[in-house]
Amino acid sequence: MIGENFSQTLLRKIHPARIGGELQAEHFAKLEYSLQPTVNAAHCYFHSVKVMIIRFSSIGDIVLTSPVVRCLKKQLPSAEIHFLTKAIYKEIIEHNPHVDVKHYLKDDLNEVISALKKEKFDLIVDLHHNVRSWRVKGALRRKSVSFNKINFEKWIYVWTKRNLMPVAHIVDRYLETIRSLAVVNDGEGLDYFISQEEEIKIDQLPLSHLHGYIAIAIGANHNTKKFPLEKWIRLISLLHFPIILLGGKEDFENGEIIRSGDQVKIFNGCGKFSINQSASLIRQSKLVVTHDTGMMHIAAAFKKNIISIWGNTVPQFGMYPYFGNEEIHHIDYSSLSKISEMKNLWCRPCSKLGYKRCPLGHFNCMNKQDEKKIAELVTGT
Question: Which of 43, 266, 352, 363 is the most core-located residue (most Cβ within 10 A)?
Fold first, then answer.
């Protein structure tokens, strides 16, 4: 058993800025595994331990876990970090230098579990906390900590419009999951890594776009997160900059309709690029206009200027663009993010995720947004 004085001394060495002098009694009391030799902060710092992070989907949610991965690896350098996600999101973590071993779920969860049993993890960090991740933890029978999804608070907000959500961003709530290891937010924001082979070279773009462009992500998993097609057309007609449209194959047809308005100014990249290639185009853009989607979080990882358009979801869910901890680095990131939304709409939020169509039929959260005001946000950035 590790003595209290030794743990305090060790934690001061690991996090001198956070702890500083005497370790706060409240923080020490909340180190969930501080007296369990296999997973406490002291053991993890000095010994090689295996930690697996679980987040199966989706693009944005996986990107938002990147500070957890980085802080674990840098603050517990002896730890071997594993990451479990769906195979379709492989490229999001494939080049992350802070992940030592990647595990991918295709179709057969039992097959993945069989492989994971051989690893004998010291700790599982469940940042998805659903039935599938519960099955993994139950089968492996290793020590685990799970992310609090605060679904009750979300339910209250959606159905009564009473906001009981914590002020904290989801990144900080993810990091709270590993507080027992004395791992703290380093303030560096999100990470996104792309291989050289996946980088899009600027000379691969049309001549009209070689001197800069705006990236506009028109896709989303849920229709109630999507800006209507006719409003995209009007908005883009007000922008006097080269445009690259980004989205999946399912967005290509809408991209072609938008592009027909000005085939020189607008390049339709929907369905033509992988996630990482799209990320490369976002990284090289002057500015990003996007829905509340994974592309928004990738843009935040690159510290891009972002205009985000919100429909049925709200920033108060804690998943707005995250650039890092301003207090740690004394940097004001507020100018990088501008949000367009219909505030005080009585029916919003109507879902924590989204729907195929507006439940009430009017879709006022998007239809009432003013394209001219959004264009002014773009030109004023």
Answer: 266
